[in-house]
Amino acid sequence: METSPNILVGILSKKSISFYLSGKYRVNNSETTLFGNVQAQINRNSIQISNSEIKLDFKNEVVLLPCAISSDYFELKDVTIGIDFHWEQKEDQKFQGALKLLINDDNIEVINIIPIENYLASVISSEMNANSSLNLLKAHAIISRSWIIAQIEKQKKAVNEKAFSENSQKPDSEGEIINWYDRKDHQNYLVCADDHCQRYQGITRSHNANVIKAIRETQGQILKYDNEVCDTRYSKSCGGVSESYKNCWETIDYPYLTSVVDNKENDKNILPKLTNEENAIKWINSSPKAFCDTTDKKILSQVLNDYDVETGNSFRWKIEYSQKEIAEIINEKSNMDFGQIIDLIPVERGDSARLIKLKIVGTKKTLTIGKELEIRKWLSKSHLYSSAITIEKQNLKNNIPEQFIIKGAGWGHGVGLCQIGAAVMGEKGYSHTEILNHYYKGAVVENYY
Length: 449
Ligand SMILES: [Zn+2]
Ligand SMILES: [Zn+2]
Description:
Blueprint: E1 6-14, E2 16-27, E3 33-43, E4 46-50, E5 55-59, E6 61-66, E7 74-81, E8 89-95, E9 98-104, E10 107-115, H1 116-127, H2 134-157, E11 165-166, E12 176-178, E13 180-181, E14 191-192, H3 209-217, E15 221-225, E16 228-229, E17 234-235, H4 277-284, H5 297-303, H6 306-311, E18 316-322, H7 323-334, E19 341-349, E20 355-362, E21 366-370, H8 372-378, E22 389-397, E23 400-409, E24 417-418, H9 419-427, H10 432-439, E25 444-447
Parallel strand pairs: 1-14, 12-21, 17-24
Antiparallel strand pairs: 1-10, 2-3, 2-6, 2-7, 3-4, 4-5, 6-9, 7-8, 9-10, 11-13, 15-16, 15-25, 18-23, 19-20, 20-21, 22-23
This protein binds zinc ion (2 copies).
One zinc ion binds next to strand 14.
């Protein structure tokens, strides 16, 4: 068994940094200590650290270690949070553990070195609501831990790295644009503090007592399949059936990330194949029995923010576009000129009825695109909830529809755990292992340390 690791989290990158050290911090494990308000900036090729008393220069990098590990913290000034979101703002953030500074591309990268269990307490506290069931929190603790351990394992191997995207703006030899996007690895640290990896704000906000309990009770536990740490994907709502990994990212089969019917009564055999167009349309227009079919605000608030709880149903939803709207969106997102949109034709669907390929027929251009995220990007100003959609054309004039009505199921890629479904399962009294076994078929909970 491994020992509980420390992890490196990239917080920010700036020309100069101001921070406050609450206690004494040893500089690079030496006898020199620093405390109070400190400045760091680049001075030629070194990092210069100064306070009112001293000025120190370090080549490339420096690590500041707290003398009292459990009580000391450092506070970073003016950290930008919610980058590119409407609520983007600056705040001072507090962190426990060590502070590492290094030079990268003429900036100082600020890295927090922290025990993994403390990191998990922070990320799950900021992601999950305080009133979530302990079952849900424990399931989430295990998948967050598995995800981070899988990143560590990947970093150890460092060879044969999984591709992180296939991304082209030009049609391939088949005349199609089939793109997918996965998370790109970081160079100088394991994970960043933003939504790109998992949002991490140190000890800035108080930690949720239930989260601490869930983490303590699952300490060191991860999900494994075939002796490999699982790549524990999850999304907001599967829409009744989860999707297979290969239909959203690289074409690889992960047996524990294949399609699962999101209830406990339906056997997969009963469900018609949703890769079939007729079945898919019926499915999206029906309301099948599923854990994620809930409008209970108390449960939804466990995994959604307030704004999204109020937005309405993500299990089955509907949007309408005028010809002008859809043409503008597609022409802008594609950076191409399709002219007016004549048709949007489903070409290929995955196991959850999510579109993997969609043919766009315009007056000036016709093109097939995929995979699911690319389709969601091209059909909405932000992102379409999901690509499990049916498309109806209305009021044809000279073969050109005046309206498109899109009906959809679910929210997100739909692979792995369905967060809304898992929240409902937790409320119904299913244990965290039952929840995990339901969504990740054949995976087992094991102690990593
Ligand atoms: Zn990241
Ligand atoms: Zn679901």
